[in-house]
Amino acid sequence: MFVLGASNNVFVYALPNLSISEGETTPGISFGLGFRNRKPSLKAKPRDVDQDLSDFDIEDPVARLPNFRSAVPNAKKYTDEEILELFRKKYPNLKQKSDDQLIELIEKKYKTKSQN
User: Fold this and answer.
1) Residue 70, SS3?
2) Which of 30, 47, 82, 99 is the most buried (most CB within 10 A)?
């Protein structure tokens, strides 16, 4: 797959394909328009014109801490990584926890607060 970045949030892709039907092989190419669901960071540099699809972050960068974001409205302007870094700075004993373990602890703590 070939990807051409049109902007920070939009990209055009071309995907070569091969169709085999009833003993006939037909080459083809598909084109499409994609949208990224993320905000560019302030430090973001312009993307290269040609990119591999693996360069794009498929996961929503703010999807792993919904309870925390619901309980703390200002948290919506930070990425998960920034929130985890802030927690580790505030609570040094959490530095040894993996991201998944820390997210589990934060979500468990804020689950009841977001439901109120």
Assistant:
1) helix
2) 47
Return d(Cα 107, Cα 2) in angstroms, integer. 38
pLDDT tens-digit series, residues 77-94: 888 888 899 999 999 998
Bridge-partner residues for 14, per DSSP?
2, 31
Neighbours of 106 (CB within 10 A): 20
DSSP 9: S
Angle between helix 80-90 and helix 99-115 axes, rounded to 10 deg: 90
SS3 103: helix
Contact 15, 29 (CB under 8 A): yes
Say what the pTM is.
0.45
